[in-house]
Design a protein that fits this description.
With about 290 residues, the protein is of the alpha+beta class. It folds into two domains: about 55 residues, Orthogonal Bundle (Arc Repressor Mutant, subunit A), CATH 1.10.10.60; about 160 residues, Alpha-Beta Barrel (Multidrug-efflux Transporter 1 Regulator Bmrr, Chain A). It is about 35% helix and about 20% strand. The protein contains nine helices and nine strands. The longest helix is centred in the N-terminal third of the chain and has 20 residues.
Length: about 290
């Protein structure tokens, strides 16, 4: 039986991460270590952190550095450049820009006048208006991978369909379900290493020998219970629905996140649909055995 994962448990795990960041302010802490502290898959961790705290890991860490710097300026009389370097900034100018963005005044004025903080509030993350929880069967798919900026995704689809449409018995006019597997979070993985798998279902009777030397591989989208949200609009705004589902809905749902790629199901084609009218299902598999170890 699935063990319920409550919001309190998510918050406890994120609190452990916050404490690890606080204890290591003087040293960079790798994202993979923070994800391990939270007991989450790396590609889910950052969205959950932001959903629970209202800040990204980078924003939270930067804010702690700047708040410590403000205390040092106000109470210690240290030179601004010395405080800036201690906060991890390479120059007085970069530190001043960040300080003004957070407190509304330059650091020298803050030090001299002790002005109250005028920070920008953290933006809360709202869950989607509707999330469907449903069971999906395993699906065998053919896959072509793109690595790099998401502008490379179109080339992966071109390779996949060029190979797929050359199969015997496949007509160019056949409607083919289209899926994307997204294992990385752009906030975690550098752009040049982002992975994306373009997928279509394996056609009946496919000879496995055809996969031996081609640009396409076979894999399976696992069966299981999925949390599904429908995204309306251009693909460039998918990240907003990802964050709402993973970062805001899951912590309040009683469910845990499976450590697998997010599944995108494209319900209409960008070739014949205006960006504002595109519809994409975002599917995140629920971990049925309780919290991930």
């Amino acid at each position: 039986m699935r063990r319920t994962t409550t919001r309190d448990e998510y918050e406890r795990r994120i609190l452990r991460v916050q404490r690890r960041i606080e204890e290591g302010l003087g040293e960079p802490v790798p994202p993979a270590e923070l994800a391990r502290v939270a007991g989450m898959a790396l590609h889910h961790f950052h969205r959950v952190f932001r959903g629970v705290t209202g800040e990204s890991v980078m924003q939270y860490t930067r804010r702690l550095h700047l708040e410590r710097a403000a205390r040092q300026l106000y109470t210690g009389g240290r030179p601004v450049l010395e405080v800036a370097l201690d906060a991890g900034y390479a120059s007085h100018e970069a530190f001043t820009r960040a300080f003004v963005d957070t407190f509304g005044v330059p650091p020298s004025r803050f030090r001299d006048a002790g002005l109250p903080q005028a920070r920008r509030p953290c933006a809360p993350v709202a869950p989607p208006a509707r999330v469907e929880v449903r069971d999906e069967p395993a699906l065998a798919v053919l896959s072509a991978r793109a690595v790099g900026t998401y502008s490379e995704v179109g080339a992966a689809w071109d390779r996949l369909f060029a190979w797929y449409l050359a199969l015997p018995g496949i007509a160019p006019t056949d409607a083919v379900p289209m899926y994307g597997l997204v294992p990385d979070d752009p906030q975690v993985t550098e752009e040049a290493r982002l992975r994306y798998d373009a997928c279509v279902p394996v056609p009946p009777g496919l000879d496995p020998a055809r996969l031996a030397d081609g640009p396409v591989t076979a894999r399976t989208i696992p069966a299981g219970r999925y949390a599904v949200v429908l995204h309306h609009g251009p693909y460039e705004t998918l990240a907003e629905s990802y964050l709402a589902l993973i970062g805001a809905w899951f912590p309040s749902s009683g469910y845990a996140l499976a450590a697998e790629p997010v599944v995108e199901r494209y319900l209409n084609s960008p070739q014949s649909t205006a960006p504002a009218d595109l519809r994409t299902e975002i599917r995140v598999r629920i971990e049925e055995r309780g919290w991930m170890s």
